[in-house]
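Supplementary Text 2. Reproducibility record for the structural model of the 290-residue chain.

All settings were left at their defaults, and a single model was retained for analysis rather than an ensemble. We include the record here because the model underlies the residue-level annotations in Supplementary Table 4.
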Amino acid sequence: MDTAPACLTDVASAVARHGAFARRYLAAMWRGDALGDAVAEEAEQVGRGRVMGWVGDGCARPGAPLPSGVPEATRALVAEAVGASASLDLAWIDRHTRFGTAPVETGGDSTDLDSYTGTAVGRAVVMSRGDQGGPVGTTAWLAALDRPGALAPGAPGFTLTVRARLVHAFLRRDLLRRDDWDAPTWGTPFCQADLAFTTAEFGPLRLRHLAETPSEVEALHQRWRHVGRLLGVDDTLLPRDDAEVARLADLHRSTHRTAVTPPRATDPPPRAAAKLSSATGRRAGPRSSG
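Retained model, structure tokens:
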């Protein structure tokens, strides 16, 4: 679509400040994840539990053959995730990463984050609450990422990240079927633009103050760009440095100023859900010695 979702604010000013990137970001408010959505379509035929199991096994045991009955898009998603690490020196990234930064579990929801407060993605999160199929907890996911080797194929952090991509695809499919999801106003739920900003918010926006050397800064950006790719985010939306993080943050915050009225407490949950836990930081530990 050529127009921005109606809920967004200050769109013309954002485009004036950020030009082509702003237009790409606004267009991404209408886009989901083509491969993840194709897997969700396959899951309609074979069952979401089976697809989640196949993807989990494929990520936990990279290189092992998947069963003959695994559909095409599901195979492609596993192959894409495993192959995404090939061009990265994950050991170098780990050596220049400070671990011990995972959030403390508070039992609350992460609605205090900028990406969730008064925004379309915040509404999608609230409307997606429930526990069918098993919740994907943000706190558990961040804890799994907060260790050396977490993003290598086969590691729990890697597998949880790819499974989160599927949860977003399932939730997106469910929300778009609901009469109370107003797409012209809110755009596509769990869209590319929102996922790009949320990745930056959990990554460099939360952790940049811990990176003290140029190598640590570079490792931080490489690490979270990789996380974004594993979540199915378009590479052109993922920031490469501090300036691009600031640009993405300004775009999100200036166009999402309490743009969406929170849903009523009586809004029913969809068939699949992801409960996102609180993301309250704690003091960072030492960098990896690997």
